[in-house]
Design goal:
single chain, EC 1.-.-.-, oxidoreductase activity, ScsD family copper-sensitivity suppressor, oxidoreductase, Thioredoxin_domain
Length: 166
């Protein structure tokens, strides 16, 4: 019994240290979004023009910065697709992932249908100060309310979206 208590204590300490490290990394890699009200409308690969302020006016918007060449994105993109299919307000920005045709062909092969902006030259990523892919940014009423980078779970993102809408 004493040994079990020791392991439980060690596990609790590990979880606290891991959470603190994760929070610290998120703060260090936190994007610096441009002033949303001054951000020009952006055009999706399908030709539709959208406003980030308008998309986040009614309910929180998940902006998913990713890349076709990103190993972790191969794990997170299907999760973002599930969120999109569940009705979560999603917009993705593919950073330096080739031309539109190549990007769409790759997304189709993986069954990805979420809205995407092709940031072929990395300008939007640089404007937002994105230092790691994937990066998840949540906007509510035109303001960034949350961000995280690296792998994140579906429930972790859903909780962040719920919290942003409260």
């Amino acid at each position: 019994m004493m040994r079990l208590k020791k392991w439980a204590r060690e596990l609790a300490i590990f979880i606290v240290v891991l959470a603190a490290f994760s929070w610290g990394m998120d703060q260090w890699r936190k994007p610096q979004p441009p002033e949303i009200s001054h951000l020009p409308d952006i055009t999706l690969v399908n030709g539709q023009t959208v406003s980030l302020a308008a998309l986040s006016a009614e309910k929180p918007l998940l902006i998913y910065f990713w890349a076709t060449w990103c190993g972790v994105c191969k794990l997170t993109s299907p999760m973002v697709e599930e969120l999109h299919k569940d009705g979560v307000n999603v917009l993705s920005i593919a950073i330096r992932s080739g031309d539109d045709e190549r990007l769409m062909r790759g997304m189709a092969a993986k069954g990805l249908t979420f809205p995407v902006v092709n940031d072929q030259l990395g300008r939007l990523g640089a404007e937002w100060d994105i230092s790691a892919t994937p990066t998840f940014v949540i906007l509510n009423k035109g303001s960034m309310v949350s961000s995280t980078s690296g792998w994140s779970s579906r429930w972790g993102i859903k909780m962040r979206m719920w919290w942003a809408g409260v």
